[in-house]
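Reviewers asked in the last cycle whether our approach scales beyond single polypeptides. To address this, we selected a multi-component target totalling 733 residues and predicted its structure end to end. The input consisted of the following lines:
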Amino acid sequence: MTTMIDLKNVSYRYPVSDDFALKNVSFSIEKGKFTAIIGNNGSGKTTLCNTIRGFVPHFYKGDLEGDVIVDQTNMKDYQLGQLGEKVGYVFQNPFIQVSGVKDNVFEEVAYGLENLGVPVEEIKVRVEEVLKLVKIEHLREKNPFELSGGQRQRVALASIIVMDPEILVIDEPTSQLDPIGTEHIFDIIRLMKERGKTIILVEHKMDLIAEYADNLLVMHEGQLVMQGPVREVFANPAFEQYQIQYPHVTDIALQLQKSGIPLSFLPIRDEELADALNMTGGVTHD
Amino acid sequence: MKRSFKDDFNMMAMLLIPIAVAINLVGFQLANVLRLPIFLDTIGTILVGVIAGPWVALLAGLITNLINAIFNPVYLPYALTSIAIGVGTGYLSKSGFFKTVPKSIISGVIITFIAVIVSAPITVLVFGGATGNTSSLITATFLASGQELWSAVFSSTFITEIADKVVSVLIVFFVVRKMSDRYLSKMNYGHLYMKRTNKK
Amino acid sequence: MKKNALLQLHPMTKFYFSLFILAIVLVVPGHLFAFAMFPVLVLVAIFAGVAKEFLNIVLKALLSVLIIVFIMQMFFYPGEHVLWSWKVFSIKQEGLNYGLILTSRILAIGSAFILFFRMTEVRDFVKSLEDKGLPPMGAYVVLSTLQIIPEMKRQANTIMEAQKTRGVETEGSLFIRAKAFIPTLTPLILSSIAGTEERAITLESRAFSAPVKKTSLHKLTKSSADRVLPIMYVIIFVALLVWRVFL
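The resulting structure, written as structure tokens, was:
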């Protein structure tokens, strides 16, 4: 399997700060894998996303130590403008992710392709396709400034997906959205996973992470404290000390375990709870 | 650190320009709505002059006038004034003239002179001495009392500009004081106004 | 804008026309020629279907200026030939002449540019400038400004309403009204400026600084009229210049 992203002993300090936002972080991500970054506020998740996307150091300046290798090339050797095609970036605030120069959604989505110099006929085909995929065809004539937060976030996602980057870095895309908006976004993310994209997602919604992610990176105070397949990380007793939320079903299972009910494995998805309990031969109530 | 002319045109600085133009227009509108006797239509230009330097402010001033000119071509010749104010403010900022209140007031006066020296000739040469705003009345009064055209226009322009520019400069001073260090560190000349000294 | 032959002209052709009017009005002496330009412009406006907006703006923007300019010259332009006087005020022939010249020029040139902007979408104008070499960042700045202005005006209103509910007064003495200004403007400035960092990141995510030549969904086309008209402008201008210099 190809390694898409490789960080070796990466530490980073923002220009105005005395502290290092990232301390000696090392990990690899393979092509096509879905990695979730979790951690409490201030743990360095967004900085890590910025590093993968190259905003650190090309946009934010500051001190970057260690090696960041994306798609076989060291971040130092990339120009910021070249990364738009390789690494898509979607972040929290839907209101700022509007280009600010287009007055309808169709052109808004096309904007990235215009910047990449894609021929006009191809642009039209690709934008149509993505509008269908993201289910925002009905918004095509609307002014981006008239959309709701959830709609804007879908348009933002569409605008990045249309550029067809191999890697998608998505930083808390649903924190400002309601449950329906969240669902729409995760539908799109799932589609991207099915297409084989390498996805890096920062989220707090553990249930959704448990459902979609392959691997977890756990950040705490700038350090990468745990990494590995999702199940293993949640099942590892060390996870508890970082005070990060578990998926709901895992939480319940752990409580049950503490009250003496044995589990055959630690469930991370709702549908697994029955199995985890049944296989112990415990009493089930109807 | 010596900044070259080209250095000033980075993306963050350029993104300030639309905001500066909008602030100029909104400031003017707000002053109208509140029926204040001063224009307050250059706050944006002065603000970016302070934090982003003369060349960015030049563009902000120019674009403000161009956009105003779409609806009123009288603004077009006065683009020179906006440009001069932007450049002047930028150089004053570089020389540290916005670091304290007294120095800022002096800057305000200097900027007034700049505005007058550029505007008055435009008013005389293009419009024959008056365009119909408040200064025209004052000009007329001076002329009626026997003054020559040039000195009448210079005097009336100065009178209408001094309060406006000094107040605008002070508003900018206080707004810059409220900006976070983190933000200022990204601005061309933000380092002059940061609270903490930067470690390299 | 509804489409017709005049509106479909390339933006530069229309812009050159306004420059052409500027040039010939300054070359030809006296006021009659310049005044005559105005009906010509009105005619063009009618053919382009923009007469109503055109006249509207001319009235709003130019009328008061023209009146003031004329009155000022009439009364205060230095001269010997007094036509009428009362106390300190006297109307002089020279003033009348100069007033006519000045107002005719302001009318002609001002209207020419007002007409241009009624006949051209700013977006198209910016695109034509880009074709001529305006850097993409320049085009972005202008277009972004146009979108931000109404947004900010809306925000300013919202903030002012919010401040009113907090007890900030907007009616009353000058001092009271002045006090309302800063609490309305300051949050607007700070929040807009704080957003530029994320806006820069958004642009980067859309490959704004990709080192390639950009393409565009909208293309401007040049018809034969667009090739011929600018040449005609130059010919007429040079002819008038020659006439002025040698006759």
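Residues 149-177 of chain B form the longest helix (29 residues). We regard this as preliminary and will revisit it once experimental data from Aim 1 are available.
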